[in-house]
Amino acid sequence: MTPTHDLFAAMRAHVVEALSALLPELPPENFARVLVEPPRDAAHGDMATNAAMVVAKAAKVPPPKLAASLCEKLAALPVVVSATPAGPGFVNIKLTEDFTRSVVPAVLAAGPAYGDGPKREGGPVNVEYVSANPTGPMHVGHCRGAVVGDALALLLRKAGFDVTREYYVNDAGAQVLALAYAAYWRYLQALGTTMTEEDYAAATPSGLQYRGDYLVPVGVALRQIFKDTLSGPGATPADPSLWLDTVRDFTVEAMMSAIRDDLAALGVQHDVFISERQVVAEGWLEKAEAALTAKELIYTGVLEPPKGKTPDDWEPRPQVLFRATQFGDDVDRPLRKSDGSGTYFANDVANHLAKIERGFPQLVQVWGADHGGYVKRMQAAVAALSDRKVSLDVVLTQIVHVMKNGEPVRMSKRAGTYITLRDLIDEVGKDAVRFTMLTRKADAQMEFDLDKVVEQSRDNPVFYVQYAHARCRSVLRQAGDPALAGLAEAPLTALTDPAELALIRRMAGWPRTVEAAAAAREPHRIAFFLQDLASDFHVLWNRGRDDSTLRFIRAEEPEATRARLALVAATATILRSGLAVMGVEPVEEMR
RNA sequence: GUCCUCGUAGCUCAGCAGGAUAGAGCACCAGAUUCCUAAUCUGGGGGCCGUGGGUUCGAAUCCCGCCGAGGACACCA
Q1: Which residues form the DALR anticodon binding domain (predicted)?
Q2: What's the domain count of chain A?
């Protein structure tokens, strides 16, 4: 048993040890591709390894021959019942039931920490997510990224990484200016202006963009605080220099406050909020440009027009360009516009330099799929700034289509069918939202069926998993909630039914699921694992229904009862631990 | 035109770092309830993994072409 209680890792260590003994002259790096996995077909045994096939070439031994020798070695292990060569060179391993059952006390002893990865060296991983523009309330479009990012951060922590969860506030661009103008309009209204909305829109540089009601209270608040000092005579627009900075800062703060509340309602947390304006104010843009200039990765040039459809207003313009093509991008990317001001990309480069300087060896970004075209240039920038030492992984999240009564709910601000994040949470609850958002790969489109998500049936995974946990708790309550430490000592030889052993084998796979999901940055795998685990448990439960000798609590068999209570408690522990990674609360009962 | 993501059962989707006979749910058909919650479970049918090549002991998985879907494509964020 390894410290992490990972049966597969333990067996892999045995396999590698056996290989080393068989092939003493072979350098150990040849064992890197050795896998010990659950076989696809349970009839093959408890575990299978590809070791003979993977090592055969370097060892200059035919795979079947090597497999046979390996089997001899492995069969000699006390925890192995049999090891048999199969197919092109697989080794199928059948474990003693005692070894399989040893997972149960390991889970109970470790508690929620079962499946935790080893402590990782090298500094924290930075995970940036949500980063919605502070121009309005959060809607369902932001929701998926928020949930995926938050779950990914929790998953990486589970896997042993230190994680810094970050929100990048886009408070420096044209959108925020437009927001300020829109809030100013509500302020003038609060003062009782006689101006019409259309006149105001016409007099505003980029028009009146944000017309939603949510800015009305902001206007009222501005009047309460600043009276009429920000306006001209008779509640007419004053010169922007008198009010723009004030209104912008106030409105951004109001929007961020609302966003924070929404995120809190979703159970999403961040450790750090980084302001784009602050990043620029601290001079990171200049530092980034200087760093790239020093590496001779910056020049002034004119880009080719985009192939295919050229924008109508395209004309050749000299710009300050970053040599992204040297780092795998398709074209070099502008850092400054033709008027010399910085591009959004430049600010983002600055932000990433700041992160690199803060000492993160790994950066993760969760973006909407519409930003997919942006990935290469950002990775190029990070590679350039860090001399390829810092990695940037981007997780893209696809669109969510909200369905109700079998009809897609159209997202339209004008038609008033705009679904805010808060609406969604109010309708189905935070846990259902989070779990459901994680039942698909992040980059696959998904339907969010409001009716299905609250349905209490097999085809609602949220319910199915929660129900399994509730059943576990029900059994444990019946038994008077025995202490886990005591159950960890229980003899388990009574656990012999195939359904019981199948459940234990599933639990044995939890650590490797965590590890693999974290490495792939795919939190949805946790949701699928929990569904499988819940299924194994429901099967077992029903076995007790068919055959009363398999019920968990048997007054006439105290030892079997204790063994099964240990099994149930271990199941509940992993269900809770998995739900925690998803940020979902386990329920005690379903009534 | 270029780039990105994707194409697996009637539907919605898994498939872990290339592994053995490709899985789950829904839907359909047939069953199980004196019981710790039947809100569950058992069994059955259903597939040229878009398509054509390549890499190798072995490909849904990796590489290339084609077809199809969605997205992104200078000075927006």
Answers
A1: 465-590
A2: 2
pLDDT digits (tens, 9 = 90+) for A114-137: 999 999 988 899 999 988 889 888
Distances (CA, A) of A203 to A176, A181, A327, A366, A476: 18, 10, 45, 38, 69
Alpha-carbon Rg for chain A, nearest whole angstrom, is 29
C-alpha angle with apex A431: A425 to A262, nearest 5 degrees? Answer: 40
- Give the pair of three-digit tokens for residue A326: 């040297």
Last residue of a domain, one of A58, A75, A95: A95
Q: Is residue A432 part of a domain?
A: no
pLDDT at residue number A308: 65
The answer to whether the beta carbons of residues A464 and A458 sit under 8 Å apart is: yes
Which residue is it, tokens 């076989």? A39
Tokens found for residue A424: 């969604």
Confidence of residue A447 (pLDDT cuts 50, 70, 90): confident
Task: List the single protein residue with the shortest CA to C1' distance from B23.
Answer: A40
Residue A403 covered by a domain: no
Question: What is the rounded CA–CA span in Å between residue A162 and residue A389?
Answer: 18
Position A2 confidence tier, pLDDT thresholds 50, 70, 90:
very low
CA distance A346 to A343: 5
Short-list A80, A25, A77, A79, CA closest to A55: A25
Q: Residue A445 corresponds to which tokens in the numbers above?
A: 């489109």
Checking each nucleotide's C1' against the CA of A37, the nearest proves to be B16
Domain boundary among A43, A67, A95: A95
Per-residue pLDDT reduced to its tens digit, A54-79: 888 888 888 888 899 999 999 999 99
Coil, strand, or helix at residue A21?
A: helix
Containing structural domain, residue A570: 461-582
Residues in a beta bridge with A179: none
Q: What is the pLDDT of residue A184?
A: 96
CA→C1' distance for A450 and B2 (Å)? 39
Long-range contacts (CB closer than 8 Å, 24 or more residues apart) made by A27-36: A30/A54, A30/A55, A30/A58, A30/A59, A31/A55, A36/A8, A36/A9, A36/A11, A36/A12, A36/A93
CA of A487 to C1' of B52 (A): 59
CA→C1' distance for A537 and B28 (Å): 26
